[in-house]
Design goal:
CATH superfamily: Voltage-dependent anion channel
Distance between the termini: 24 Å
Membrane topology: Multi-pass membrane protein
Strand content: under 5%
Number of domains: 1
CATH class: Mainly Alpha
CATH topology: Glycosyltransferase
Subcellular location: Cell membrane
Structural class: mainly alpha
Order of helices and strands: HHHHHHHHHHHHH
Family: Belongs to the tellurite-resistance/dicarboxylate transporter (TDT) family.
Helix content: over 70%
Shape: globular
Number of strands: 0
CATH architecture: Alpha/alpha barrel
Protein name: C4-dicarboxylate ABC transporter
Pfam families: SLAC1
Oligomer: single chain
Length: 375
């Protein structure tokens, strides 16, 4: 389907007709930048982060309205996304975008609105958990039963529906300490750790297949250049989740006579987080090399470029958390450098997104070319 500037569309509703979940990757990126700015000890950055968090809420509400309108007005066409091997994967960005808002209610909302912010975060967290669990199993089921896939066409977008659950698990580590029992215990243990395990092993299985695919069939095409960074997402989020859950574990376990288990969980969180951080460093360096190659080849801009932002953001958060936990100046400095790089990348991608959205070039729905699903 050919693309035309928004001003030249036959009718304004065409933008809604072509609106897809890819746009929720924008909320993921804006949200994670806001959270990173709140962790960097530079005066004024926390206020900037809070402003971005409010923008993130506005964008999520706007995108939710547009996507809901697409289903209401163009339901038959909207259903075609379930048969599209790539577009359907981006449904996983919806719960991940919501998770950044939930985390913001703890980081920014608690100091400003008090316990009411925690109540909102807790309620949204349960919604997010349901969405993440659904994405984590239903979208792979569609891959197995309805969609057409091949190893040589595989990219890291396969990770998107799976990783949503571990992003929700990391949010549990932020929300749980502010809840009273039994809510805190359930969110941390029965939900946080379970959601982490629901996601991370599957994500690593996909990463293993992805290594094989790149070795046998070389890199993905230039229009999927940013997908090389998606591999950093589950690693960074997995490390951050272990650190956050492990940090909460001693207090929660101690309330139930399991103080020793809590200390073990805390130690595993630190060791596991550090090990995953090291693995993430390998993927980060590899992604830089791949990106350099794609830049030389002239990779075209698309919404997939937001794949540069969120994975780097969660890896930055894990780095800063590790630096604070271990009190290592080197990790703290690395986190600050990564934060600066993140802001630079986010600025570039955000500017090009605003330009593309104004022109209408980014309203693309490849699933419209897919055949209508069987009744």
């Amino acid at each position: 389907m050919s693309l035309r500037p928004l001003a030249e569309l036959d009718r304004p509703l065409e933008a809604i007709r072509r609106f897809t979940p890819n746009w929720f990757a924008v909320t993921m990126g804006v949200g994670v930048v806001a959270l990173v700015l709140a962790q960097v000890p530079v005066p004024g950055l926390r206020a900037v982060g809070e402003a971005l968090w409010l923008v993130d809420i506005g964008l999520f509400v706007l995108f939710s309205g547009l996507y809901a309108a697409r289903w209401i007005l163009f339901g038959d066409e909207a259903r075609r996304i379930f048969g599209h091997a790539t577009a359907s994967m981006f449904i996983g960005t919806i719960p991940m975008g919501l998770a950044t808002i939930i985390n913001g209610f703890v980081v920014f909302g608690l100091p400003r609105f008090g316990q009411a912010a925690i109540e909102i975060a807790h309620g949204l967290w349960w919604i997010d958990a349901v969405l993440a669990i659904g994405c984590g199993v239903l979208l792979p089921y569609l891959m197995f039963t309805r969609q057409e896939h091949a190893l040589d066409r595989m990219t890291a977008v396969w990770l998107l529906p799976v990783v949503a659950a571990e992003v929700t698990a990391a949010s549990a580590g932020l929300v749980a300490p502010h809840l009273a029992d039994p809510g805190a215990r359930f969110v941390l243990l029965a939900s946080g750790y379970v959601l982490w395990a629901y996601s991370v092993p599957i994500a690593f299985a996909i990463l293993t297949i992805l290594l094989l695919r790149m070795a046998l069939h070389r890199l993905p095409p230039a229009d999927m250049a940013a997908s090389s960074w998606l591999t950093l997402g589950p690693i960074g989020t997995g490390a951050l989740g272990l650190l956050l859950l492990g940090g909460d574990a001693p207090a929660v376990f101690a309330q139930h006579g399991l103080a020793e288990v809590g200390r073990v969980a805390q130690g595993l969180g630190v060791i596991g987080g550090l090990a995953l951080w090291g693995l993430g460093l390998w993927w980060l360096l590899l992604a830089l090399l791949i990106t350099g190659r794609h830049v030389r080849e002239g990779a075209p801009f698309n919404l997939g470029w937001w794949g540069y932002v969120f994975p780097l953001g969660v890896y930055t958060l894990a780095t800063l958390r590790l630096g604070g936990t271990l009190d290592l100046i080197g990790l703290k400095a690395a986190g600050t450098v990564l934060a600066a790089a993140l802001v630079a990348v986010w600025g570039l991608v955000a500017a090009r997104t605003l330009h593309g959205a104004w022109r209408g070039d980014l309203f693309s729905a490849p699933c419209l070319a897919a055949p209508a699903p069987a009744a």
